[in-house]
Amino acid sequence: MTIMKKIMGAGAALALSAGAALAEPALIFDLGGKFDKSFNEAAFNGAQRWADETGNTFREIELQSEAQREQALRRFAEAGANPIVMAGFAFADALGQVAGDYPDTSFVIIDMVVDAPNVRSVVFNEHEGSYLVGMMAAKASQSDTVGFIGGMDIPLIRKFACGYAQGVLAVNPDATVIANMTGTTPAAWNDPVKGSELTKAQISQGADVVYAAAGGTGVGVLQTAADEGILSIGVDSNQNYLHPGKVLTSMMKRVDNAVYQAFADGPGLETGFNVMGLANGGVGYALDEHNATLVSDEMQAAVDAASTKIANGELSVHDYMSDDSCPALSF
Amino acid sequence: MDFQTIIQILDSTVRLATPLLLACLAGLYSERAGIFDIGLEGKMLMAAFASAAVAALTGSVWMGLLAGIASSVALSGLHGLASITFRGNQLISGVAINFLAAGLTVLIAQDLFQQGGRTPPVSFGEGRFAPIELPFAETIATVPFVGPIYAELLSGHSILVYVALLAVPGTWWLLYRTRFGLRLRAVGENPAAVDTAGVSVVGLRYAAVLICGVLCGIAGAYLATALQAGFVKDMTAGRGFIALAALIFAKWRPWHALWACLLFGFLQAIALRYQNIDLGAFVVPVQFMDALPYILTVVILAGFVGKAIPPRAGGEPYVKER
Questions:
Q1: Within this chain, do residues A240 and A147 fall inside the same structural domain, yes or no?
Q2: How many domains does chain A fold into?
Q3: N or C: at which end does chain B have fewer Cβ atoms within 10 angstroms?
Q4: Interface predicted TM-score (ipTM) of this complex, two decimals
Q5: pTM as predicted
Q6: Would you call A142 exposed, middle or buried from its count of C-beta atoms within 10 A (0-12, 13-18, 19+)?
Q7: Cα–Cα distance between A321 and A162 in angstroms, integer?
Q8: Model confidence over B253-282: pLDDT tens digits?
Q9: Is A190 in Cβ contact with B290 (below 8 Å)?
Q10: Which domain holds residue A219?
Q11: Within 13 A of B193's CA, how many CA atoms are on the CB side?
Q12: Nearest CA in chain A to B14
């Protein structure tokens, strides 16, 4: 019996060390799903790029419910995955609980700050990118009315809206910004029908450019904008190709770069607070063959000038999350 | 609020109420026959996926509609098998169908199209229901008051909207003016009496469940191929449950179901148009408007506005005495 125990113990130790030696990185997607054409897909693209370039593999999981967050984290950590990257602000609570139990594993959380010695918190300056697309929206608008459609009403999405409104007003102080949120539950990320109705409501109020920061709901927004012949602005990933010639631009949030960097840094990655803004290519606007006809040289020059100013600190865009208020927009 | 705005809100109401109405009538048939069905959501979702997928593959909107109805009827058949033939718990079977649809749709979509549980977008003329202009809509549009109501509110919807509206008098006629309807209602109140009269309880209940499947199928196809141009994961977003609330609100009657769904659609349309409604003295937050359908249903259930009495034999499998 004791020999048996010893053998099994040795086997278990061997299995554990084997797992640790492999140290595959892992990526956990949020509820929107891996291929949401937006946030999660950008994360996946970054991981895939790393895998293609290095020839290594990574582990991944798509969550089905809130309850799985901590479970998924613990399972990857127990299995020896390192570093573990999670895409989404909603992991903060679960990570706060788990991080201390696995001091040798490095965690990377995107869109939220978790204060632990083995966690890298990557946040994006979405307000800066949104400011740029807001400028473009104001320049493209004929009616001086532009719209914003957010997904779930959370401070992060208000940060998008606030930056956007500031950009619009910087170009045209008389412009009107109509801002709507789809809902207050996670279902708001996947309700394209409601996104469509919101777009129609904004069009009837005069909006002719609509910016969607709403995950899967944004698909409905872009679709309806294309149907009704107005311009839309995509978010997170480059969504210009969804309706060529109808999507003015996309606010790019380079989640892929953040994931790629984390995977490339490997298990002993530098932890702490990591801000990705205009200055280091963390956010930006998309320009490709699908929207080349919509973006005039003058528009591009103005946006690029503002981009440089923001990057070197001459121009500061107010961050909604810094004080939970927005000078340019009331919610 | 000017006249034009009111028309726009009502127009939005019609679009939002249509899937609710179809699902609500679907539930009405099933529950009137004594089979509780909380799987409306799952059936709509499955139909939305099947219609969008087949419409994208074949380019035919009608093939899409047929596929949507077929998939929804298949789930209905499953519900019938579990709750009628095997006398299982109807609520559990309904929940299972919701889970099954949520998982299966994304899985099959990913396998077929590799677009992360979506279907490729369809366009008008190739797999998407185009809006129908009613006759003379152009000419009447300039007439004050009546013109905009006809041209913007009544005209310009997809054909499924008119199908849904016609289904209301159709349901009323079928339930209250035909022999089949009488038996269907009886089987939900007292199946033993129906059995004594020599009519098959099982047959009637299956018929009701299948009609439920057809209507849910149309609702799903409307979401995916008329309102939208493709399927997105979980796109029904709880409409099946709001339809159930509307069914209780309507006290299981067809005309009341129409008004209940229009009211719920109207509340949604208002909430979408105005984020916060300023009534001068206080501000109504948008969250309150979103919750109002459920609050109203609870009020009705509590018996404040007349009593809502469900079919007496609802939820109970029929066991023939031997």
A1: yes
A2: 2
A3: C
A4: 0.86
A5: 0.85
A6: exposed
A7: 10
A8: 999 999 999 999 998 888 888 776 677 777
A9: no
A10: 127-253+284-323
A11: 11
A12: A197
